Amino acid sequence: MANNYLNTPKGINDLNTYLADKSYIVGWQPSQGDVAVYEALKKPPTSATPHVVRWYNHIKSHDLKKLPGEKKIPAALSGSGAQPAPASKPADDDDDDVDLFGSDEEEDAEAAKIREERLKAYAEKKSKKPTLIAKSSILLDVKPWDDETNMEEMEKNVRSIEMDGLVWGASKFVPVCHGIKKLQIMCVVEDDKVSVDLLTDTIQEFEDFVQSVDIAAFNKI
């Protein structure tokens, strides 16, 4: 069953891998797909699966009943996505490629030594490869209530927001209409640490200054 699978060590690790480059289970906003997986977990995730922890805490902050979409766990997380093993090659198939993972019965001591040396070299090379940190550059439009809003104070409040993985950049006031200006401000976020929805919700908590927040541009770095 899908529920039991997500509560197994392999299931929770698969979920952590699945969420490594995703903010949500399906699409670009929270949905009933997130609710299905959230409710399938019998206990909160631990620090051993940081991507699941990030996602779990974010989904927990929503009103789950009001989220859109179909309440369904993706096949990739149901434990039913295993692929059948590839068929064996015919006995008379001529293949001159070296099989580094062949049976020990078919390799002599020298071939085994070469195989181990190649595997060791590959493992050392892979361990030295730097880990890439996924980041995004975001341009936000922060709109005030009217032309009497103190824009400098509004910008000061926005920049006061601190999150691990968030760096504020350049900003400017852009005329909209009837003497009203909006704040355009750049920021760079680490995708695994900062939820864009949480960031915009936090900005809108300065409700004495902020009417709304829009994403004007979003680019992966």
Automatic annotation (TrEMBL):
Residues annotated as domain Translation elongation factor EF1B beta/delta subunit guanine nucleotide exchange: 135-221
SUPFAM superfamilies for this protein: eEF-1beta-like, GST C-terminal domain-like
Domain Elongation factor 1 beta central acidic region eukaryote: 100-126
A UniProt-annotated Pfam family: Arc1p_N_like
Cellular component, GO annotation: cytosol; eukaryotic translation elongation factor 1 complex
Gene3D superfamilies attached to this UniProt entry: 1.20.1050.130, 3.30.70.60
GO molecular function terms noted in the UniProt entry: guanyl-nucleotide exchange factor activity; translation elongation factor activity
Similarity field: Belongs to the EF-1-beta/EF-1-delta family.
Name the record gives this protein: Elongation factor 1-beta
Biological classification of the source: Eukaryota, Metazoa, Ecdysozoa, Arthropoda, Hexapoda
